[in-house]
Design a protein that fits this description.
The protein has 374 residues and is mainly alpha-helical. It has one domain. It is 67% helix and 3% strand. It has 14 helices and 3 strands. A hairpin with a 2-residue loop joins strand 1 and strand 2.
């Protein structure tokens, strides 16, 4: 039984009857699964580096409440409110991302984090959803008289963002931002000249990264020929899936997490495979697919150009990030530092995922007077 009557005109009541409650439920399940897997995967990692057993799990739980508040709060906004938050968020995110290049903490050869009060913040995580919304705003305004240089501004913003990401360096996030940006340009109906030009530029960028960035070269070579270098993490991940079988070894019974360096972050899906089995992995994949396809389905009859483009970018971002992480775990994509939304450990990733999905839920809410919506 619903808590709110359909005649409830309060802010919360109106939100409840207009938001996509099925997507909200799917995201809630992903959050619960992430909390469970954090308890399963992080203690062994913490102990291995000399920390208290539940150090990472406790930090993960600390961020759950603010993540929930961000998601719910954002989903209550109007499209105009989402756009305003995105503009402010992008400006702040870019400023903090620039700060990481100047005073950021280095880890694993990359400078992506700022240390704030005992916690590390990765500002570029928040740039992704905000940039998708701002890009949609610029593309939607490109035909208006008051915004003739909108496409050029959009391209300039993209150039600034990927330059910062490449300087960190963060090739994986650069690829995701590029894919989302390209998807929005494609949906915006720009000429095939633009589409082919951007496609060729993306291919050229990928080739350049392979030729000029040593760790990208190493990862691609190891993916194509595992015998050409160290494939320890992938070998352990595949071992985890093999050991887990259909139903898994049982909660806490996994062994691979004891030797897998990033078991609580990039390779947490492998931990799920070993301890909970194939069926649990299929459930996780199904939840990500449901949120992604549900978002697309709710856009099919959308007539607000900005909403269409912004939601396209956000749903592409959500689905693509999950696809890359799972693909790496299954050894169908080269390794890269990409978290699994709502499941991997990381405060920045959790809060940024909540921000992006909250925006998506706000944009796909039923709005009276819109085409195809009651």
């Amino acid at each position: 039984m619903s808590t709110f009557a359909r005649t409830d005109t309060s802010v919360v009541g109106h939100w409840w009857w207009t938001v996509d409650r099925w997507s909200l439920l799917a995201v809630a399940l992903l959050v619960l699964i992430g909390a469970l897997l954090s308890l399963a995967a992080s203690p062994s990692v913490a102990e291995r580096i000399g920390l208290e057993s539940f150090h990472f799990a406790r930090r993960h739980f600390v961020f759950l409440a603010p993540a929930a508040a961000i998601l719910i709060g954002m989903s209550m906004l109007t499209p105009r409110g989402v756009r305003r938050v995105a503009v402010v968020g992008l400006a702040a995110g870019l400023a903090l991302t620039l700060a990481t290049l100047l005073v950021g903490a280095e880890a694993k050869g990359a400078t992506r984090w700022l240390l704030l009060g005992g916690f590390s913040l990765q500002p570029s995580e928040f740039v992704k959803p905000c940039f998708a919304v701002v890009t949609a705003w610029l593309l939607a305004a490109r035909s208006e008289d008051e915004a003739p240089p909108a496409v050029l501004i959009c391209c300039a913003l993209y150039a600034v963002i990927i330059t910062m990401l490449l300087l960190q360096p963060d090739i994986g996030m650069t690829a995701v931002v590029t894919a989302v940006w390209f998807a929005q340009f494609f949906v915006a109906g720009l000429s095939m000249t633009w589409v082919f030009g951007l496609g060729l530029a993306a291919i050229g960028g990928a080739v350049a990264a392979y030729l000029l960035v040593p760790h990208v070269t190493s990862r691609v070579d190891r993916f194509l020929d595992p015998s050409s270098g160290d494939s320890y993490q992938i070998d352990r991940a595949m071992e985890a899936f093999h050991r887990g079988g259909l139903l898994g070894q049982g909660p806490g019974e996994g062994a691979v997490k004891n030797v897998l360096p990033d078991a609580h972050t990039d390779f947490i899906f492998s931990v799920a495979g070993e301890e909970f089995g194939l069926l649990a992995c299929l459930l996780i994949v199904g939840l990500f697919a449901f949120v992604t396809l549900r978002g697309i389905q709710r856009l099919l009859r959308e007539d607000d150009y900005f909403v269409l483009l912004a939601a396209t970018g956000l749903v592409t971002l959500f689905g693509l990030q999950a696809t890359i992480n799972i693909g790496v775990n299954l050894n169908v994509l080269p390794t890269k530092g990409m978290t699994l939304p709502f499941i991997s450990y990381g405060g920045s990733s959790l809060l940024a995922s909540a921000l992006g999905v909250g925006m998506l839920l706000a944009l796909t809410r039923r709005r009276p007077g819109r085409s195809g919506q009651p």
